[in-house]
Specification:
Strand content: 15-25%
Shape: globular
Number of domains: 2
Largest sheet: 7 strands, antiparallel
Oligomer: single chain
Radius of gyration: 21 Å
Number of strands: 10
Structural class: alpha+beta
Number of helices: 11
Length: 345
């Protein structure tokens, strides 16, 4: 169940290194963007944004002076086009309807709503301050999870596509008690999600940092839990931070798992997930090693946190293999090798 997990109130932003810039160039993640995070900070006023039911959100809609908006919005549709099609020239029927800003969280993101004027269909993109640890998290998600991640980075700016799904806190509040919910499938997916987080050391998966993707099946529905916040990729020192079940916000789902799954079934699902991750690891091992080398060559994370995490993982796995770690890249690499174990041979 939950524990008192302490997270840094203000996480340090880790700068990009030359190695990381080279990696991003090599794999098509780095582009010269027509607008930066700093450009979006030039708003003149803002007002709080409520959801469709009138409940307050953590977002505020921002307003720009007319001359700023006239220049900025076309550049944002160009970024959307680049993200979606690889072409900076946006089709003329796309326009920016709204820009929202969130002061809650480390990245203080902007959310841009782009609308197709022919059919009013809309999509979102997110513009954030670039942070190396977040990029490591995005890349590990792309390479080791069942989910593909689409993002661009350049000059202190990170642009990410919207990840669709029901926010975990809203799902727990509004869906978990419904009679038509398949509790066993939800419990299974949460176990697999927890396993993915721990193996690649993605932390702070409180309920508002992941979404539930619901897909109709021919007889029932399938669920997938997807992380949407990657700020805490191998940053904090406590091992429990990387286990979603230790956050009190997830207690209702933890109770659901306890009610519907016995230990043998939990271990079965964990083993299934490790097998899938190991197959992706083997398939993408060259790229993963390049990414881990970026993390290891220029460690910027707080050394005391790295040492604490290495020590706690060594105690957990009952091994001394973490004793020689000098960076979070080393810690992630060791944890992957140990937890995937026999699946890599």
């Amino acid at each position: 169940m939950s524990t008192d997990v302490k997270i840094s109130k203000k996480k340090e932003f880790l700068p990009f290194t030359d190695d990381l810039e080279t990696y991003l160039d090599q794999f098509g993640r780095r582009y010269s963007l027509p607008a930066t995070y700093q450009d979006l900070l030039g708003f003149a006023e803002s007002y709080s944004l409520d959801d469709k039911n009138g409940n307050p959100t953590h977002w505020a809609t921002v307003l720009y002076p007319p001359h700023v908006q006239q220049d900025l919005y076309p550049r944002l549709t160009s970024i959307y086009s680049l993200l979606r099609t690889g072409d900076l020239h946006a089709v003329p029927h796309l326009y920016v309807e709204r820009v929202d800003f969130c002061e809650f969280g480390n990245s203080r993101p902007f959310r841009v709503r782009v609308v197709n004027q022919y059919n009013d269909n809309y999509d979102h993109l997110y513009v954030k301050r670039a942070d190396a640890s977040r990029v490591y998290g995005l890349e590990l998600e792309h390479l080791l999870s069942p989910n593909r991640i689409n993002y661009l980075a350049h000059s202190g700016t990170l642009v990410e596509e919207h990840i669709a799904g029901i926010p975990g806190d809203a799902f727990i509040r509004d869906y978990l008690d419904r009679p038509d919910i398949n509790e066993v499938r939800i419990a299974k997916e949460f176990v697999k999600f927890s396993e993915r987080c721990f193996i690649r050391l993605l932390g702070d998966m409180r309920s508002y940092n992941y979404v539930i993707d619901i897909t109709p099946d021919f007889e029932d529905v399938q669920y997938r839990v997807r992380a949407i916040d990657f700020d805490q990729q191998s940053y904090e020192g406590r091992r429990s931070l990387y286990l979603p079940q230790f956050f009190k916000e997830n207690n209702p789902v933890v109770w659901l798992c306890s009610k519907n799954l016995n230990l043998a079934t939990v271990r079965q699902y964990q083993d299934e997930e490790r097998t899938l991750i190991a197959r992706r690891y083997i398939s993408e091992h060259q790229r993963i090693h390049l990414l881990l080398d970026c993390m290891k060559r220029n460690p910027r994370e707080p050394e005391n946190k790295m040492q604490q995490l290495a020590r706690e993982l060594g105690e957990y796995h009952q091994t001394k293999r973490f004793d020689s770690c000098t960076s979070m890249g080393d810690v992630v690499e060791r944890n992957l090798e140990i937890t995937l174990g026999r699946h890599l041979t």
